[in-house]
Amino acid sequence: MTLLCPLDAVEDFAAKGFEVVLGGETQSIFIVRRGSKIYAYRNSCPHLGVPLEWTKDRFLSIDGRFIQCSMHGALFRVQDGLCLMGPCEKQALKPVLVEVYNGEIHLTPQPSDPGQSSPKPSNSR
After folding, report:
1. pLDDT the model gives residue 117
2. Domain for residue 48, yes or no?
3. Range 67-90 average pLDDT
């Protein structure tokens, strides 16, 4: 496991980006916090492959309810990364596996094909 940050470094209903090594390559990912649950995805819009954030760590819509693409405004559900509105409707963000352990968020070993895993929230232990 790779430590990303303490849980309290990410406010509730906020997001934070990271550069990590996945499959031997440096990748941009982000996490979204909902209480003690953490959802993590690759930072790449399924429509154009562009990074999602507006500015550093700004991945969410103004009201914080959705992940929003900065390029074309597509809205994604936080819980599963599914696009609800925009040119990539019904496509989904690629999940990244994380775990909250002892108040810290850790990147966990990823399956060989992240697109085959279903996003699951990480719960505090």
Report:
1. 41
2. yes
3. 95
